[in-house]
Amino acid sequence: MATTQRPTGTAQHQPPEREHLRGRLGVPHLVFTVLAYNAPLAVYAGFLPVVIAFGNGQGAPTTFVAVGALLLIFSVGLNAMSRHMKSPGAFYSYISAGLGRPVGLAGAFTAFLSYVLITIGAYAYGGIVAKALVENLLHGPELPWWLWCLVFWAVVSVLSMLQIDVSAKVLGISITLEVAIVLAWSLAVVVRGGPGSHPLDSFTPTAATSGSVPFAIIFGVLCITGFEALAVFREETKDPVRTVPRATYASVALLATLYTVGSLVWLKAFGVDGAIDAGGTDPSGSFTGSVKTYLGSVFADLVSVLLVTSVFACLLALHNIASRYVYTLGEDRVIPAALGKVHPRFGSPANAALTVAAIMLVGFAGSAVLGIDPLTVYARAQAVGAVGIIMLMAATALAVVVFFRRHRELDVNLWQSLMSPVLALAGLATAWYLAVSNMDAVAGSSKGEATLFLVLGAVVILAAVGLALVLRRLRPEVYRRIGKQDV
């Protein structure tokens, strides 16, 4: 296939001024990033009991098995296509190559906005858990939630500008502690027993289809995300062709296993009715209380501390992902080129990281100035952002199909190029439809607010498509850069 020579080509011959991001990330580092993004301890304390209480109750473990299988199938086509994507733009690159530059740019803007919203929500949650830790466990001063957000923000902003290896080490330590505590609690419940029934009862058709299956599916998908963004770290990995796919599969499998086991343990520790009651009234408090019952007060206090470090690790992972979206768009000159510069010493997207930090500061500080309750910020920002990610996954699955139909010369099999992405598209499109149809329940908002969220999302998409069309007409050299479609 003929290629067009561009002043800042991204294929085999780079001009002297073009610098790559630097790092030597391996599979464990990327897996830690995905685990940090999902904050497994926070999921155990918050999301799992909510899926049980408001989803399909005893059938929650089946939901996580099904969602894990769906996302593994999605990963097949994603990884097959990633071998032919030279840009660390993830959704941006995939959708551009498959569905065209205007749709690809809309995907980039939607992805960035989604990650920003998820991050702002995480800041709000971080303020809540840090405030609770200082006041209740440490008996410290009563300070506003946003002040603790500011502490998180300062540390995360500095680390996000350093070489990615530094962040990876920090994430690795935090995630190891998180996983250790949830496994210790799970093992204690299994060994000592509880009022719950036999685990296999959760996998019967009656249990799997009980309660609100759509709600369970939506939140099940929301619990296993972040893996789709690993491609943004391609330039910073030792061997991206092998490392990124392996980390993707490992992340999805590990998260699905953790949450399947976690939901089974919740049901065992509390019993079906008790788990539903606990998840519907005080999930975090019930989890901490259960840890105290099975492991003792020291471990319960440790959970309170690790919830704070869990949110910190999540924020660092999110900052790194969002920064690399800004970096890629800057490198493509869609936004100011300075944002696509690499730090000469750290090999990081420092300018992009600073920009993301400024946006986050405005986000949570603005919420505080407006007097919005942090729980409201957390629930709505995270929900809207996650629904955007599900939509982008569905669009990417479609892009994989179209891409390989156009490039039949590429060495892929039918399962990779057609069957797996079509199956993933069907499942993800269904999940997205369920989320949009129940947006008020997902975001914990009124129907009017839910409609406003969807309208604003549509405006962002249309604005991005419009910008791409303007660039095609007025700045064709920039338009050609969109998505770095180097096949």
Automatic annotation (TrEMBL):
Gene Ontology CC terms, in alphabetical order: membrane
Mode of membrane association: Multi-pass membrane protein
Main subcellular location of this protein, as a coarse class: membrane
Positions of transmembrane segments: 30-54, 60-82, 103-125, 145-164, 171-191, 211-234, 246-267, 294-318, 351-372, 384-404, 416-435, 450-471
Record keywords: Membrane, Transmembrane, Transmembrane helix
Listed Gene3D superfamilies: Amino acid/polyamine transporter I
Any GO BP annotation: transmembrane transport
Subcellular location: Membrane
Keyword Cell membrane recorded: no
Amino acid permease/ SLC12A domain sequence ranges: 30-467
PANTHER family, per database record: AMINO ACID PERMEASE, AMINO ACID TRANSPORTER-RELATED
Protein name: APC family permease
Organism: Nocardioides acrostichi
